[in-house]
Structures are given as structure tokens and as C-alpha cells.
Amino acid sequence: MANDLSAYFLTNHERHLNELSEWLSIPSISSLSAHKKDTVKGAEWIVRELKRIGMEKVEVYPTQGHPVVYAERLHAKEKPTVLVYGHYDVQPVDPLHLWESDPFKPAIRDNKIYARGATDDKGQTFMHLKVVEALLKEHGELPVNIKFLIEGEEEIGSINLPEFVEKNQELLFTDVIVISDTGMQEKGQPALCYGLRGLAGLQIDVKGAKGDLHSGQFGGAVQNALHALVHLLDSFRNEDGVIQVERFYDKVKDLEDEEKKVHDSLQFSDKELKKELEVNDLAGEKGFSTLERMWVRPTLEINGMWGGYQGEGLKTVLPNEAHAKITCRLVPDQDPDEIIRLLTAHIEAHTPAGVTVAVTVYDKGAPYVAPYDHPAIQAAGRSYEKIYDVPVQYIRRGGTIPIVAEFDQILKKPVVLMGFGLPGENFHAPNEHFHLENFDYGLRVITDYLQELPKALEKSNDLTQKL
Amino acid sequence: MANDLSAYFLTNHERHLNELSEWLSIPSISSLSAHKKDTVKGAEWIVRELKRIGMEKVEVYPTQGHPVVYAERLHAKEKPTVLVYGHYDVQPVDPLHLWESDPFKPAIRDNKIYARGATDDKGQTFMHLKVVEALLKEHGELPVNIKFLIEGEEEIGSINLPEFVEKNQELLFTDVIVISDTGMQEKGQPALCYGLRGLAGLQIDVKGAKGDLHSGQFGGAVQNALHALVHLLDSFRNEDGVIQVERFYDKVKDLEDEEKKVHDSLQFSDKELKKELEVNDLAGEKGFSTLERMWVRPTLEINGMWGGYQGEGLKTVLPNEAHAKITCRLVPDQDPDEIIRLLTAHIEAHTPAGVTVAVTVYDKGAPYVAPYDHPAIQAAGRSYEKIYDVPVQYIRRGGTIPIVAEFDQILKKPVVLMGFGLPGENFHAPNEHFHLENFDYGLRVITDYLQELPKALEKSNDLTQKL
């Protein structure tokens, strides 16, 4: 492999980690307004870095929310263009006491880097910058044209990005979109993700009497907001884990036999998962395998719930307020707006007497399934196989990258989900980390892919035009 | 009314309120260990005050928890003995932001004193001390023998008091027990409470996977602790508000026709209650009137519930922990220990697969119904009528004073629930307050009662002996 930059990456390993740690130290939590300035800092850091490595037209585009960062380098004449998408925002860190080290003081333990955003998604986005830097330093120029689009609202549903993409189709014109924000199934086993679930999220606020009441004085006579909420939330799923929201499954496509075979080939082990998560039983929709429940079936999960007295001991209060946050993961061809309408109708129909309920709509994102036989995707598979030296797996993921479906609809180009995360890396949870083994392999996979892509697309010019 | 001390009480009104404010300023919250020292301060304050007004043998008895304060003055030879019970501990104050003034900086607005404990129970207990002080100052001696028993654990189920009462039966020997810790139905309408509900409370802790999980990655495959809790909590009551815990109602006595007539005579208005609480509908067990649901039917209420993400916006987490606090109000002849066993069995039977549940037992208290035709109770009714100048109502209350049933069982003497609170005074809730009008009337009612009691008991000596 003449064009392999392994030696370069090894030499620069420590510098890379120091730079990444700097970025990971910025608490750019997009959902919390108290961190508004930090998200700007997160954007500024990546802007400085993009300029430093040799990207051009590096610009910050303000939005209604957190800014979008764009950069390009278009000197590879008659070569394909690759749009790399990533995000500089991260999830909140609570419960903080469960972190073994400060989420914003990156720590390396056992060849893993621990920090909020280590794998989702600063760590994975950062690899693409390092590959560009390496190629420019070692080869003087890039083998393809590259555009970067790095946003700050992925964790809150990419609220403003679709409008930006819609308005800037020319700026973002590309042959392929590459995103590293997913993962593989197990260590040493590379995987290319060709499908993601969508998302529809909302908050439910229940209000009863004018204030909290004494549970002895009024208990039995007045609706308790917590009981009303519990009843409402329990009405969403039945004992078999089947979602009871009317027409919820109407648009869900049946799994094709071919994909079932792919699932079978993965030899997924329920036993292993139970062991990993330390549970006695798995749960979920009856009649579907665990992989199906995680990848190709829609879900409804309560993400948070609270009300009444939460302190030490008891307080004999009859609470007048109760709150819950729920999200649904969606699969083709469910439409997030329609699902929000169905959920709202269900809530209205199941609100007990004596309380009022308000619904606030949050994140939305459509599901996405890529044509995994597309040459740009197949080329990615070959790069994985070359570097990891094992056959690549084609998988779907249960998570959501809200902008993926929008890219598909607006830019009409294939999205290559070239992820390097691992299942136990605590995405969105305490002690998020990224295996440095995959950081090292990933740099080489991306390098190889950018070099091999022109050939792959040349051969299948027709197909590319069609998509 | 030669023995009326109205003039004295008027002269000393301001001093009384200043003294009460001092006591109310001590945050003696018994359920929170952070306030351990404050509960001791609450006890010390009342000890100093008991000594100052002329009580004797004033002593602090340590318990496993918060101390018990005892005092006596036994110079009324051949007169009955009255044991006054009260409590110096108070409920927690959250949600703090809903208080219009600091819960521990007593404020007088619109002839009401606002503070935690104003009505429950420092304000009401304090009246008895002021009556003793007044009688001693104005008459030189008390018309009856008086004992005070003031504890610091009423709000946490009087955990240690039964043992104290059991061990100190001689010290506490009395003819009648008087407690001012209840209320009347409406302003200007005195009421004597002859029945209280009991209490059984516990906390439920649900534990799922080893940690919080990503709701996209694992959603649909693993039991969400919040869903498990919601399912468990919703299983406690059916759509008609009937508690579904097996054998829960087995020991509940039917309401006697005579008492039904008393209820009817009270002309309770659902419409008024809805207006007062600002709700469109009342709720609760089908087939029972609102008064019945509040006074003579048992309940199961969720007092608090929490788990997962409770911050701004969404966090797409699949929480591995969920918690709830519940209490049941009990009626004769339900036994708190048995109810705890039934609840625990129900929880075990309804725990969904994939989670484990732990139960922590908190407060317990038996229900109590007094013989309201007892002369000590009838005498109290006459004192109310004399001072308020309207017929007294005989009512039951939905709340619990845990020690009342124990007094009944151990001391075998009637308990006179001579309350001066009002329904809207926010017992256990933000902006607790006490109407000073009832503070003023109350002092005179108690004064009259202590003077009239010897005659009343003399006449019905047989009956007293029998009880």
C-alpha cells in the first residue's frame, strides 16, 4: 500500500490526541441554554483547525440556533466531491456522579479516550480532518474534492440544518456524503451502516389542581397529576410491547427476506447482549428478533419523568404537576410529523378527567435506508476490509442522525455511514469513550477510501447520475 | 363568662405572635437528615418555653430518632388529667419557588401567619402553652392537671413514639388526650374531628440495565426502567379509581347509616371544592361521595416519581433507574403492616421482566375513630359552640396523626381532636398559613374546655372508667 499513511499517523499519534482533547474539553451541549457560549466555542475551535490544516472558504454560518461550519478544498479536477458531515455539539452529561472522570477533562485509560463527545461525534469527525491534513502534508493535494459541513444541533434534532441545506444546494453540491457518527457491532469487526431510524420527540406536562395538596386531606377526591401521567404513559404500549397509538404502524414496511438473511448472517447473540447490559431478560415488541427490534421496528421510550416529592423519606403530598419526555424511533416509511400528530391525538384521547395536558414537540428526523449496493458504499466496504483485514458487515442502526434523510431528499446523493464507534462506548450516557484502536484504523480506512473513491465512481458513472 | 380570658389574650396578642414566629423560624424538618440539628433546636425552644410558663418536670427524652419533650403540672387535686399532644417537626418545603415568602421567616398578611408549621402543628400546639400561661398568670393555678407530650417525628410517621408511650404508661397516665392538629370545614364553622385515616407508605426503586443506554441503539430491545415503573404504578388502580391490590379492601368497614346522615347534614359541595382547587372534575373511587372518598375510604397515592432526563429539551436516553414514593390512607379496620405486605406482594407480582424492584417501607399509622358521644368530646363541642356561637360539626378527616391510634390502644383513653385549621391553609404544601382569627378563638375555646372538663367528666364517671 504505497499510499498508506500508517507511518505518518503513528508519528503524529500523540499530537492528534492532544488536539482532540482540546476540542473535547469544550462543553458544547446544544440542548442547554446555559452552554450557548460553549457551543460557539466548539464551532470556533473547529473553524481554526479547518483553516490550519489547509481547508479553504472556511466560514461560520449563523442559524436561528447554533452556527453551521462550512469549509471546502476543490482542487482535484474531474474527481468526485465528498461532503463530510459531522457535529460539534454533544449530549448533556447528567447523572454527573456516575462519571469516573470529568466529562470535559478527557482522560485516556486502557487505550480509550473518555469524554463527552469522544465517539459522538467530535472524535469521529476529527479523524476526517486529520486525514485531510495528512494527505496535504504528505501528498501535497487531496485525491478528491472535499467539503466539510459541521453543525451544532445534531443532538437536538438538527432543527435548523435542513433549511440551510435547502438554501445552499449549490454550495453543498457533491457526489457522495460521508458521515462517521455510527458504529460497528463488535471489536475488530468493521461494519457499514446502511439504515437509520428516525425520531419524533415530545414533552408531556400534566396539570391538576391549583397547587400541591395534602394527600390525607384531599386524597381520594381529586385527580393526582402523577397518577394521570402514569396512566397516560402506560397506555402507549401493551403487555407485548406493541405500541397502542392508533395508526402508528400503518406505514411501517415489512422486512425483506434478503435483509432477514443479512441479519441471520450477523449471528447476533441475545445472551451476549444480556451479559453486556447486565440484565436477566431482554424486552420489547413480541414476535421480532432483538436485531429487528433495535434496527427495523419503531419504538416509543420514556426518556425522563418527574413530579412530586423526590427527596429523602416521604412527603404525603398529592402533586398537581407531572412531566415526561418521550421519543419514538421511526422506520421507513413513517413520517415524523404524522407520528407527532398521532401521538398528540392519543394523548388527548387518554387524558384522565380532572387534569389538563400540554404537549411540546421537540426533535424530529425521518428514517433512512441507503442502497447498500451503491459503488460509493461498496468502495467504503472494501476500504474497511483492506485495513481491518476481515469481511465488512452491512448493518442498520437503531439511532438517528436527523440530517441523513434530508441529505437524501435534498441533495439526492448516497450517504455513506462510515462509523467507527463500538456498542459499549456509552453514547449519550456517563463515561462515553472512544477506542483508540478504531481511531487509528479509522484514519487509515478514510485515507484509503478517499484514494479509491474516484476509481469506484468512474466505473459506475451511470448509477451515480441516477441517484 | 367570668373565667373568660379574652381581655388578657387581646393584651398579649402581639407578644404571642412574636414568640410563635421565633419557633416557626426553626426549620425542624424531620424527614431530612440535613435538618437534624434544627429538629433539636425545635425541641429546645419548646422546652425553654414550657419551663418559662410554669410547667414542671420538663424533660427531653432522646429516642432512636428525634427527641420527645415531656412536661407536667399536676396540682389540681381530684381533678381530671389532660395529656396535650403536639409535634414540633414540620414537612419539607419544596417546591421552594412557589412560596410567596420564606417558609422560615414567618410573615403576617391579611390576618394570617405564613410559615411552614404555622398550622401543622407548631401554631396549634403553641395555643395550649399560651392557655396554660394565661391561666397560671390570671388564676394562679390550672383547673385540671396537664401533661404535655410534644414529639419531633409526626411528619415521618411517629416512628419512635409508640415505644415511648408503651414504656411510659405511668408517666403518661391521663383521663383524656387533647390534640390540636386538625381543622374545621369552613371559616367560622367549628368542627370536632372524631376519625382519622391511617397511613402506610413506601418507596419503589426500579433498576434495569447496568447504566443509562442510548435510546436509539438499544431502544426496543431492553426494558426501560421508567416504562416498568409506569406499568407497575398504573396497575395499582383501575379506571374507576378502585385499588387493585389483592385483599386491600378486605378489612374496610361499611359506613353506618347514622354516619351517612351526619355526612348529609354537612351539605358538602363538590362544586365549591372544584372551585377552590381550580379543577374541572373531581376524581376517585366510583360509587362514593366526595366526603366518603376523603374520610372513610382508603386511598393509594403516588407522592413523588422520578427517573431519566429532567432538564431542558430532550435527551434520547433509555434510563436504567426509576423511583416512586407512594402512600395509602387507611380506614378501620385496615392494619398498616398487613397493607404493606399486600402492597409488596402486588409489586412483586407486577414487576415486568428485565428489571428488579426494591421496596423501602416508610411511614405507618393505624386509622382511628373516636366515640363521639363521649362526654370529654361532647364537652369540647360545647366549648366550641360557646366561643364561635354556632353549632359545632362532628366530622372525620382524611389525614393521619399516627400516634392517635396508638394512644387509643395503649392509654385506652378518648382522644379529643380539637382542631383549628382551615381547608385552604396548605398543610404540607407551599404557603402554609394559619388564620389568626382561629388562633384567637382557639385560645378561648381551650381555656373554656379546661375549665368545663372537670364537671363533664364528673357527671359521667362510669363512662370514663369504662373507656
From TrEMBL, chains A, B:
<protein>
    <recommendedName>
        <fullName>Peptidase M20 dimerisation domain-containing protein</fullName>
    </recommendedName>
</protein>
<dbReference type="Pfam" id="PF01546">
    <property type="entry name" value="Peptidase_M20"/>
</dbReference>
<keyword id="KW-0378">Hydrolase</keyword>
<feature type="domain" description="Peptidase M20 dimerisation">
    <location>
        <begin position="194"/>
        <end position="353"/>
    </location>
</feature>
<dbReference type="GO" id="GO:0006508">
    <property type="term" value="P:proteolysis"/>
</dbReference>
<dbReference type="GO" id="GO:0008233">
    <property type="term" value="F:peptidase activity"/>
</dbReference>
<dbReference type="GO" id="GO:0046872">
    <property type="term" value="F:metal ion binding"/>
</dbReference>
<keyword id="KW-0479">Metal-binding</keyword>
<dbReference type="InterPro" id="IPR051458">
    <property type="entry name" value="Cyt/Met_Dipeptidase"/>
</dbReference>
<dbReference type="InterPro" id="IPR002933">
    <property type="entry name" value="Peptidase_M20"/>
</dbReference>
<dbReference type="Pfam" id="PF07687">
    <property type="entry name" value="M20_dimer"/>
</dbReference>
<keyword id="KW-0645">Protease</keyword>
<dbReference type="InterPro" id="IPR011650">
    <property type="entry name" value="Peptidase_M20_dimer"/>
</dbReference>
